[in-house]
Specification:
Elements (H helix, E strand, L loop, with lengths): L3 H8 L11 H9 L3 H20 L8 H12 L1 H13 L6 E2 L4 H22 L11 H4 L18 H22 L1 H5 L7 H22 L9 E4 L5 H4 L21 E2 L4
Parallel strand pairs: 2-3
Antiparallel strand pairs: 1-2
Helix pairs in contact: 1-3, 2-3, 3-4, 8-10
């Protein structure tokens, strides 16, 4: 039997019925998801919030659930007044990790415990496409958000091959035109040959250097501490007029220290 808090969370609506572009649609667009998958993530986000209050230990979301959390934080009135004040009765904060191996280990442990508590308290297996194993959840990755309607995501190796192939194709006619100079051993004019060769070598070196650079978004796991403060603390950000103007940060993780009602 579901407890009262879970029932309140499940009935808490993130999509405004009159909004032409509701929360679930924005979440789907910002992450390149289908609307159906976005709605499933929202269900798991609400379950995560419930676990933060009921698990009895710190919890950490999956990346997909964390994206829903980030976006909800931007809807300041819905988050602080509606959910924290009206449903939870206390604040649920989200902040970035301090970084380092120690912090990484802490969030990985919290995530494992979150998965265990989910199975125990909900009596079912987690959806694997939203809650992957910890080794997948915390594997190193470099990501950037893009608008899939106006941009293509092309692997760097493909771009390097195209650049290299295009450079060689462009240089071959030049080299062919210099072949008579090579035969005549006219070293003064061999610059006609050496310059395009040097250009190809430069392109190769540049591609190798860029390919070796690791990229990160500078954001690791976020953390939050659920407290036993009163409802007034939940409304600390409610004075904002309209949207806060923030967007999903793409942080890799998050955690909460939850508590009971």
């Amino acid at each position: 039997m579901k407890d009262e808090l879970l029932l309140r969370l499940e009935s808490f609506e993130l999509d405004e019925p009159s909004a032409p572009f509701p929360f679930s649609a924005r979440l789907a667009r910002e992450n390149g998801w289908s609307r159906e998958f976005s709605r499933r993530v929202i269900v798991e986000y609400k379950r995560f919030v419930w676990l933060a209050m009921r698990a009895g230990h710190p919890v950490t979301p999956s990346e997909e659930v964390d994206e829903a959390w980030h976006l909800h934080l931007c809807y300041t009135r819905s988050y602080w007044d509606g959910m924290c004040g009206g449903v939870l009765g206390k604040p649920l904060h989200h902040g970035p990790t301090e970084g380092g191996e120690k912090e990484d280990a802490i969030f990985a442990d919290w995530y494992e415990r979150t998965l265990e508590s989910y199975r125990r308290l909900f009596g079912e297996e987690l959806p694997a496409d939203i809650w992957p194993p910890a080794e997948i959840r915390f594997r190193p990755a470099s990501s950037r958000k893009i608008d899939a309607t106006t941009h293509w995501a092309v692997p760097k190796r493909v771009i390097k091959r195209v650049l290299l192939g295009g450079s060689i194709a462009a240089v071959l006619p030049v080299l062919a035109g210099c072949s008579h100079l090579i035969a005549a051993a006219d070293f003064g004019d061999l610059l006609c040959f050496l310059i395009p060769v040097a250009f190809v070598v430069w392109i190769i070196v540049l591609a190798v250097k860029k390919g070796g650079k690791g990229g990160g978004n500078g954001c690791g796991g976020g953390g939050c501490g659920g407290t036993s403060s009163g409802i007034s603390s939940c409304g600390s950000s409610a004075g904002d007029s309209g949207s806060s103007g923030c967007s999903s940060s793409g942080c890799g993780g998050g955690g909460c220290g939850g508590g009971g009602d």
